[in-house]
Amino acid sequence: MNKEIFFIPMKSFFLLCSISFSLGIFVYFFSDDFYNNHIFLFFDIALSAAYTGFILTALPAWLGFNKTLKNINIFLLFLFLTSALTYFINTFFAMFFMCIFWLSLSFICSFMCFKTKNFNSLILILFGFCFLKFAYFFTLNTDFLKALIHLNSAAIMLINFKISIAVSRSALDEKNYKDYHFIPNVYYKNLSVFTLILLSIFSVIFSNIDLKFLYIASAFMIFARLKDFHHKELLKTHYVLFLYISIFILGLAYLIYGLNTTSASLHLIFLSSICINILLVFNIAGLRHNGLVLRFFKRTYLSFILLFLTLLLRYLNINDFAIICLFLSFIIQFFMLLKIFLNNSFLQDA
Amino acid sequence: MLITNNKSINRSYFTRMLDYCFSSFISIGVFFIFLSLWQIANYYTSDFILANPQNVILKALEIIKNYDEFDLIISLKRAFIGSFISLCLGIVLGIISYKFKTFLLFIKPIISINLSIAPIAWVVLALFWFGFSDFSVIFVVIICTYAYTFSCTLNALNDIPKGLKDMAKIYKFSKKSLFINLYLPFSLAHLLPASLISISNAFKLTIMAELLGANNGIGSKIADARSFLENDVVLAYLLICVVFLAAFEFLIIKNLELIIYKDKTNV
């Protein structure tokens, strides 16, 4: 068995995240307290795993940090599993351990920045996550969860920006446009991130005011990001097209929520900003950091189709089928990732 | 954006227009952020001080739907006629000043005097001279905006490199070819933004002139709304003006830029 699964953050946490999302089906059908359980499972467990896996893979590469993360990974795994397992005994302690987990992750990333004398704005967002996690832990006020969704969307905008550079380079090489260079618009990225952070802050401070205009503003800021990809040379490749669709759906979700503020449309934001983008990152990072060609498998397409179906069904409040689609989507991902991770060695510099 | 050899790649008009549409989403987004801040301000004040943006939007839609009843066309007509005449006047005077330096020396002080007089003074004078009429409003628009167009035209013509003019002379360009290939592109680079500023100034001046010296038009309706303390109506009219100018820039000015300047890819 490939031991890397326990020592490489991407491998261990991506698999844990897939499992966590899949567990949603059991929580939905067999749980007494579905509401709180699904919040903990999706917000605390799945989201934390996804972020840890991605950040501890991408950040060292962005910052130039080349020390081993083996001990860090074991420590974070311990905290993560402690939180997950404690949940069955005591919710309070489970949430507390998850807060400690986020605090540790933020400080680990800050330490990387300090060591490499480099900085990445994602660190600030991580501390934002920390603050909101603690705030929710102490108050149980769902406004902090809403803020967390928007802060996550801001992080997605930052991450997508970095990913777009990598996948576009790959797309241009694949289509033999060697002398072409992709330059994404950094100002549009800044504006979309700023608007989403503003929305995150306002949804806590002005929780009693209808912020529909700010949701619509966020939607347009996200849509503007799509301008970068309007080149047939890029959109011919399926992974750039998926990236384009994921950003478009996120913008659409914000627009729908701005025009029709319901729980169903808020779930659209969650599913589009978190699930679809997590799936995209899993596949792009999973393939690249394991030395494989950036070409999605047929099962990946099926996962995406199921996830889009989840979005549609959840919006139409056909929740039973929505949760089944979500389960199938991530269980397919789990087995696919497991196969990739077991058969290939990890590459830090992808 | 894709670049090759430090230059953005050539793309069709349609693609560049699509890009422009998407980049205009930023402006729309900023506008909605402003609406959101307005909504928050409305929550902490009252409808009397700052009307609810949602009500204002609904009111604006109602005004647009019943444009005849709310005098939209009258004000638009005045603003357009005024700005069109001032644009023509400014261009003609600019060309004459470029050709004849004596005329330039003669007209410069007049322009300076014109610029130093406050528009509100022209409104009052127009009322004395022409009374409550279309002409008084149009006169104010012309007198206050032609100087800017004149300056832009003159700068545009003075900016044409001497080398290009000499080359045109050597190759014996026809007058038509000289105009199409040399004077027009250089002038339009200055005149397109100038026409947008001219139109927006014309709009503001039209409303101001109507507010003080007309019995119909948007300005007059705003004066009525002020009397009846209808805050939402005033803001609705302002919103219509903003949207109209944005539409004018998007549909006309930007399109012309995209057609004329094929190399200008980054909007």
TrEMBL record, chain A:
Membrane-crossing residue ranges in chain numbering: 12-30, 42-65, 72-89, 95-114, 121-138, 186-205, 239-259, 265-284, 296-315, 321-342
Keywords: Membrane, Transmembrane, Transmembrane helix
InterPro entries in UniProt: NnrS
Domain of life of the source: Bacteria
Keyword Membrane among record annotations: yes
A Pfam family recorded for this sequence: NnrS
Name of the protein in question: NnrS family protein
